[in-house]
Amino acid sequence: MTDKKDCMTMEQAEQKMECLREVFSIVRLVDGEMLEKRAEHSADADADAMEMCQCYSFWNKAKPCENCISMKSLREKKQAAKLEFLDSDIFQVFSRYVEIDGKPYVMEMLKKLDEDTLIDAVGYGKMVQKLSVYNDKLYRDALTGAYNRRYYEDEIKHVKGKAGVAILDVDDFKLYNDMHGHHTGDMALITVVEVIRQYIRKTDKLIRYGGDEFLLLLPEIDSENFARKLNKIKKKIAETSVPGYERIKLSVSIGGVSATEETVEEAVQRADKRMYLAKMYKNTAMVEGMDQKIAEKDHDEHTDILKPRILIVDDSKINRELLTEILQDKYQIIEAENGNECVEKLEKYGNDIALILLDIVMPKMDGFAVLEYMNQEQWIDDIPVIVISGEDSEEYIWRAYEAGAVDYIRRPFDMRIVYQRVFNMIKLYAKQRRLVKILTAQIEERENLRQVFFVNNFRVYSDICQSY
Is 140-296 assigned to CATH 3.40.50.720? Predict the structure, then answer.
């Protein structure tokens, strides 16, 4: 129930505020109904919501406060207080619920704090230190000590300016957790962060962007030095052992771009795409503007080696051209007019083919014969085949899957669906190959340890026998 002294007329409220202005820097009334309306729209933070909020003109915030003290006072019908920051200034804010002419309002009283308004210089220092510790805890990842995603969202996301922006993803991180436990995964992340910190400046920002993803922001760096630094980080991480888990070999996939006038958020989206490209090619970080220089150094007859290779097999030239048009920006395309040519390309390129798009009805050697050949030569387990055909009978679809095809797309098709299915399948098989490689390496290492153990024990046994 509201106290009688908090119920007044507008004239009384104006008189009261005039007295309070002798103590406070700013005294104002906030309409309770407008506050409630703003709360209803705050999830979207649209222009209307901003206009409703009387705080924007003073605090210059880009979105409604998450802990609006006036809203708290309105809903709890009492007085509340907090500290608020505006650039380097600190304000003490009091919000008090009042009823004026029977309508709900919040009376806000703001006072700028400085050394003179605090108890003394020591008290000021203690408060600043306490606030700094709180801010550090708020924006730091508890495990690695890097900045956290909240810091990115609150402080970095909308920043513009010249900078190198990179996404670093720890390869096969889930595998470390599943095979060795979460402590191993934690140690792997800590190790990665410690390595990165050796190669960045105090002005650079390292942010734990996701579970096993990190965002690196390097202001005022040119693309060549940026690429050199990222590759050095990648190389050093590969050479570093995880403390207590020396058998684990770390690696990261890195995608980087140079931002100019765009926001960090926009640059991150581009860097993320390059990071997925880097997962296909482990030898280098994929840095925008430097990819072509890397490609020029390679003497392969296909200079565009940074793109996964797709083999399109179709007797229709129009169909091949259509699929090429859809995929050529992201993938290297080779073509075959029939099954015989497909076999020739398989023999030539082997596992360098990331995926095959295969028609069924073709002269000389049809799609089913190609699938049969791939089964016989054991290509089918390593190279995914997506059938694209105008034949949509259940018999054809069943036979294709039975022969080892991973997907079946009917004509006419949606170009976006084809593109996404191809992307998903190549990504899945690339991850599968890495998993097989890691497991094979671990099996070989265990076998070597077993042999060493056997040899050492045999020598001990021989020495004992000779002593007798």
Answer: no
- Classify domain 309-430 at the CATH superfamily level: Response regulator (3.40.50.2300)
Whether residue 51 is predicted with pLDDT greater than 60 in this model: the reply is: no
pLDDT band at 350 (very low <50, low <70, confident <90, very high): confident
- Euclidean distance between CA atoms 69 and 89, whole angstroms: 18
Identify any residues that bridge with 164 across adjacent strands, giving them in sequence order. 218, 258
Q: What is the CATH number of domain 4-133?
A: 3.30.450
**Scanning the structure block, which residue is given the tokens 């390059």?**
274
What digits encode the pLDDT tens for the residues 355-398?
A: 999 999 998 899 999 999 999 988 888 899 999 988 888 899 99
pLDDT in the model for residue 340: 93
Q: Higher-confidence residue: 450 or 55?
A: 450
Q: Domain spans of the chain?
A: 4-133, 140-296, 309-430
Give the rounded distance of the alpha carbon of 2 from its chain centre: 50
